[in-house]
Amino acid sequence: MTSSDFQAFMKIFKYYFEHINLYPNSLLARIYGVYSVKMDESLPVYLILMGNSKKCDNRYLKANFDLKGSTSKREVFDKGQIKNTTTLKDLNLIKIKNEENCLLFQTEDIKAIMTQVGYDISLLNQFNLMDYSLLLAIEYNPEYVRKYPSEFLQKDETQIQKERSYSCGKTYTR
Questions:
Q1: Pick the CATH number of 54-174 from 3.40.50.300, 3.30.310.50, 3.40.50.1100, 3.30.810.10
Q2: CA distance 107 to 99
Q3: Relative to the CA of 122, which of 14, 21, 30, 89 has its CA 20 to 30 Å away?
Q4: Per-residue pLDDT tens over the stretch 53-66
């Protein structure tokens, strides 16, 4: 965290805290504290303590995305090392969406997500802050895995890795 990031957060902390309490389903990262640590003659180091916003079990995780709403430099290239926990980007999601029938949200879920994003953006806009990205995790439905384990247990590792990189299962927003 830079000194200017630290100062900016200190100015908005009260409003951020009120926002998080008013909107418990906020998609903003949970920030538990920001700290300035200075030792002896060295320059201060600024730290931020944040909660993990990904609320799914990696055993069922199919793909993970950091979405910014841009396509410029927004792709992770498969060099044979993409795992289900690799954080992919916007172009990876577009590719998957074009190849698979996934991300089928209920109308009420779309409205709830868009409303919450609007509230969150409104807070950021109030302080002329721009950086907003959305962490999206797509996971297999754990009930489906338990009901049809043979579809998941009998595949070889190459096939599983390919599916994790290029297809979608049940989607969750939290």
A1: 3.30.810.10
A2: 22
A3: 89
A4: 777 777 788 889 99
pLDDT average, residue stretch 6-26:
92
More confident site: 31 or 167: 31
DSSP letter (8 states) at residue 79: S
The tokens describing 8, both together, are 């900016």
Check if the beta carbon of residue 63 is closer than 8 Å to that of residue 88. Answer: yes
Q: 169 with 139: CB under 8 angstroms?
A: yes
**pLDDT tens sequence across 84-115:** 888 899 999 998 888 887 788 899 999 999 99
Query: The tokens of 66 are what?
Result: 């950091």
CA angle 117, 30, 126 (to 5 degrees): 50
CB distance 121 to 69 below 8 Å: no
The structure tokens listed for 107 are 């109308």
